[in-house]
Design goal:
The strands form 2 sheets. This protein has an 8-stranded parallel beta barrel with strand order 1-2-3-4-6-8-9-10, surrounded by 6 helices. By secondary structure, the protein is of the alpha/beta class. The model has no long low-confidence stretch (mean pLDDT 97). The termini are far apart. It has 14 helices and 10 strands. Helix 2 crosses helix 9, helix 4 packs parallel to helix 5 and helix 7 packs parallel to helix 8. Bound molecules: 6-deoxy-beta-L-fructofuranose and manganese (II) ion.
C-alpha cells in the first residue's frame, strides 16, 4: 500500500513552470484572437503568473521567451518576480520569426545568417546571467520543405557547430535543453525532429546538455513514456513542455486531450525518481490559449498535472513489480489502472487546505474578481502576443 504522507510530500514540493506566452494572445495561421485584460508587457505577464501560483501553490516559476519578453533591465524583471514569490525559469530563444531565417537559422547555408542566429543564442545566455535562470531552452524551426532543398548532413554539421559555441559559453550552473519537433513550420525535414537527434547532439556536447520532451511534438501513436523512461535512464531528460493535442502541435491544456497519456508519462517519472530535485527535471507548461481565458486555463492545466502526478505517485510499485516478476500481465496492468482510476481530487483539496489554499483554485480565482480587475485596468497599449 502506498504511503499517502509520502505522496503529499512530493505534491507539496511540486514546481510547475508556466509559460509567459501562455498569458498573451495566441492563435493559428488563420487568426490570433485578442482577449480583454491580456498583459501588455513582461511585468503584467508575471502578475498573471503570480495569480496562478497564489491559487495553486505549485507554480513558482515562469519561462521567458526572447524577444517576446524583452525588457531594458532584466535584473529589475527578476526583482519584480521575486517580490511576487516567483522565480524566472528557462529562457527560450527565438530564431523563427525573422525574415533572414526563411530557410534556416543556425542551419542556414549562409554563414552570416548562422552568425546572426548564434549571436541571439549567446544574448539569451547573457539574459540568463541577469535573470538567474539555469536553463537555456532551444527550439529550432529549422528544416526544409522539399527534397534536395539543402543537404541534411551539412545542416547537422552547422547545428552542431552553433550548439558547441553556445555550450562553451554556459557557466557551470547553467544548462542547455534542446527541444525536438517532428514537423512545422518545416514540412519535409526538421533539423531536430526527434528525441534521438536531440539526444545525440546532447551526448556530443556534454553533461550540461539535455533533451526537452514537448508532448505535442511527436508523430501520432508515439509512445512518449518510453522516450521519457529511456532519457531518465541516461540522465538526459532536462525538461518537459506539457500540453495536449488531438492531432498535431495543438498546444491545448495539458491533460485535456489525453489524461491517461499524461499519467503514463508521470508514472515513468515517479518510478525513476524523476521528481527528486537532484534529478533536475524541469516540469513546464507550453500551451496557447487561443479561445479560452488565459489565467483560469493555466490554473486548470496546473491542476491537471497535479492530478496526473498524484495518480502516478499512488501506483503500488511493490505490487506492480511482483506481478511483473511473475509475468502476470493482467495483474500488472490492473495495478496501474487502479491508480489511474483513483479519484485524487479529495486528496488534492485536502493538501491545498493544509497549505492554506482554497480547495478548488479555478472556482476561487473566479470568485476573486481577478479577471474583471485586469480587464478593467488593462485598457489601451499593445496587448502581448506571438507577434507572428
Ligand atoms: C515550438 C514550441 C517551443 C516554443 C514555442 C512557443 O512549437 O513548442 O517550445 O518556443 O513552442
Ligand atoms: Mn515546446
Amino acid at each position: 500500500m502506498t504511503d499517502l504522507s509520502a505522496v503529499k510530500a512530493v505534491l507539496r514540493t511540486q514546481a510547475i513552470e508556466t509559460p509567459s506566452w501562455g498569458y498573451g494572445n495566441s492563435g493559428t495561421r488563420f487568426k490570433v484572437f485578442a482577449q480583454p485584460g491580456v498583459p501588455r508587457d513582461a511585468f503584467e505577464k508575471l502578475d498573471d503568473a503570480a495569480a496562478v501560483h497564489a491559487f495553486t501553490g505549485v507554480a513558482p516559476r515562469v519561462s521567458l521567451h526572447i524577444p517576446w519578453d524583452a525588457v531594458d533591465d532584466y535584473a529589475a524583471l527578476r526583482r519584480y518576480a521575486e517580490d511576487r514569490g516567483l522565480e524566472l525559469g528557462a529562457v527560450n530563444s527565438n530564431t523563427f520569426q525573422d525574415d533572414d531565417y526563411r530557410i534556416g537559422s543556425v542551419c542556414h547555408p549562409d554563414r552570416a545568417v548562422r552568425r546572426k542566429a548564434l549571436a541571439h543564442l549567446l544574448e539569451c545566455v547573457d539574459i540568463m546571467d541577469a535573470t538567474g535562470s539555469r536553463d537555456l531552452k532551444l527550439w529550432f524551426a529549422d528544416g526544409t520543405n522539399y527534397p534536395g532543398q539543402d543537404d541534411i548532413t551539412a545542416r547537422q554539421d552547422r547545428l552542431g557547430e552553433a550548439l558547441a559555441e553556445v555550450y562553451a559559453r554556459l557557466r557551470d550552473d547553467q544548462r542547455m535543453v534542446l527541444e525536438y519537433k517532428l514537423f512545422e513550420p518545416a514540412f519535409y525535414t526538421t533539423d531536430v525532429p526527434d528525441w534521438g537527434t536531440s539526444y545525440a547532439h546532447c551526448l556530443r556536447l556534454g553533461p550540461k546538455a539535455r533533451v526537452v520532451v514537448d508532448t505535442g511534438h511527436h508523430a501520432p501513436g508515439t509512445n512518449i513514456e518510453f522516450i521519457v523512461a529511456f532519457l531518465l535512464r541516461e540522465d538526459r531528460l532536462g525538461a518537459f513542455d506539457f500540453n495536449s493535442r488531438f492531432y498535431a502541435d495543438d498546444d491545448l491544456m495539458a491533460g485535456s486531450a489525453d489524461p491517461f497519456q499524461l499519467f503514463r508519462i508521470l508514472h515513468e517519472v515517479a518510478k525513476n525518481d524523476g521528481f527528486r530535485p537532484e534529478r533536475q527535471v524541469a516540469f513546464m507548461l507550453d500551451q496557447c490559449h487561443n479561445i479560452e481565458a488565459k489565467i483560469p486555463a493555466v490554473i486548470r492545466s496546473v491542476m491537471n498535472v497535479q492530478e496526473a502526478t498524484a495518480k502516478a505517485l499512488l501506483v503500488d510499485l511493490d505490487a506492480l513489480r511482483a506481478a511483473q516478476r511473475e509475468g502476470d500481465v493482467l495483474a500488472a496492468n490492473a495495478v496501474l489502472m487502479d491508480a489511474y482510476h483513483t479519484d485524487v481530487r479529495p486528496l488534492l483539496r485536502e493538501l491545498r487546505e493544509e497549505q492554506g489554499l482554497a480547495p478548488d483554485p479555478v472556482a476561487a480565482y473566479r470568485r476573486s474578481g481577478g479577471q474583471e480587475r485586469i480587464t478593467a485596468e488593462r485598457v489601451g497599449g499593445l496587448q502581448a502576443g506571438w507577434g507572428a
